[in-house]
Design goal:
It is a single chain. The chain is α+β, with helices and mostly antiparallel strands and 143 residues long. The strands form two sheets. Strands 1-2-3 form a three-stranded antiparallel β-sheet, with no helix packed on it. The protein has a three-stranded mixed β-sheet with strand order 4-5-6. α1 packs across α2. The protein is globular, with a radius of gyration of 17 Å. The termini are far apart.
Length: 143
């Protein structure tokens, strides 16, 4: 297991009530969301859900990693976008996740963008956290 040499930031969030009618909020109050199950899981779909929060966090983190490698390669990528598709479904006696990351880098050919994606996938903390446990595809798509 890889452990950071030094913790420089700790995010703190608390959930009460879980995914069916609960809330999740950060200790600084900057994030405070109502949680509801999506319609596909029998819920009203009127709030957010943990998979959406995970998808947003993964997409943002992965985008930062792509931008890092683009900068190192001298590639203009400030308009790069990452879409994280987080699947949720039955697995064994519980539930599991899948992730499909789609990365678009306007003005960059797909082969070059895929090189950035591959490099980002090696260092992104979310990718590292789920590696070997959650199936993840990370691919460049035409912008």
């Amino acid at each position: 297991m890889n452990v950071p040499d030094k913790i420089v930031y700790t995010a703190v969030a608390t959930s009460v009530g879980g995914r069916r009618g609960g809330r999740a909020a950060t200790d600084d109050g900057l994030l405070d969301v109502q949680l509801t199950a999506p319609k596909e899981l029998g819920g009203p779909g009127t709030g957010t859900n943990p998979e959406q929060l995970f998808a947003a966090g993964y997409a943002a983190c992965f985008n930062s990693a792509v931008l890092r490698f683009a900068k190192e390669a001298g590639v203009e990528a400030k308009e790069a976008s990452v879409t994280a598709n987080v699947g949720f479904g039955p697995e064994g006696g519980g539930f599991g996740l899948t992730v499909d990351l789609e990365v678009a880098v306007p003005g960059v050919d797909v082969a070059t963008a895929q090189q950035l994606v591959d490099a980002a996938h090696e260092v992104c903390p979310y990718s590292k956290a789920v590696r070997g446990n959650v199936p993840v595809t990370a691919r460049a798509v035409a912008a």
